[in-house]
Amino acid sequence: MNEFILSLNGKKSLLEFKSDTKVVFNGEELNFEIFELVNNVYFLRIEEKLYKFTCTHIKNENIVLYSNNEKYEFTALTRLQDKAKELLSQKKDYHHLLEIKAPMPGMILKIKKQIGDEINQGEPVLILEAMKMENEIRSPGKGILKQIFVREGNTVEKGTILFSIQN
Question: What is the mean pLDDT, run by run of 10 residues, along the chain of 167 residues?
Fold first, then answer.
C-alpha cells in the first residue's frame, strides 16, 4: 500500500493508492485514471470529472502543477518522511563542545588564536612541533574557541586536550 501526505498551503491530506485505478483521499475512496497527453501535460479523471494539468517541476518531494491558469505547489511525502521532517523541525539547536586532542607527542610552538575567537572549519589554531616538524592543528568545525589548555613552550603527550570549541 502506497500512502502519501500531501501538503498544499499548509494543509495536509492523506492519499493512499489501493490499486492502479483506486485511491483513498482523506478517507474517501475514489476511482481515478491518469495519462500523459504530451510532454508534461496530463489528464486526470477522478470519478466522472476530468482535469487537465501541466507538471512543470518535480524535485525530490516538491511538485508544481498548473491547471486552469492556477498554480499549485505542494509536497508529497511518505508517512515516514513526513514524521521525520516534523521531528527535525522541532529539533532544538544544541551547542556541542568539541575537545581537540594532540594527535602526537610534541611541543606547542605557537598559539594562533585567542579564547573567544570565532573559528572556521580547517582554520589553524596552534602549531605543534613533533620530530622537528611543525604541524598546524586545525579546527575540525566552525565555532567559538572556548578554552585553551596549553601554553607556548608546553610539551604534550598524544591525547592531551589542546583546546575546545563550542559550535
Answer: 83 91 93 92 93 84 88 88 80 74 95 95 94 92 93 96 92
CA distance 45 to 163: 65
Given the C-alpha cell 529539533, which residue does it identify? Answer: 91
Q: Which CATH class is domain 2-90?
A: alpha beta
Domain 97-166, what architecture?
Beta Barrel (2.40)
Dist. CA 132–CA 115, nearest whole Å: 27
Q: Compute the distance between CA of residue 13 and CA of residue 4 in angstroms, rounded to an integer.
A: 8
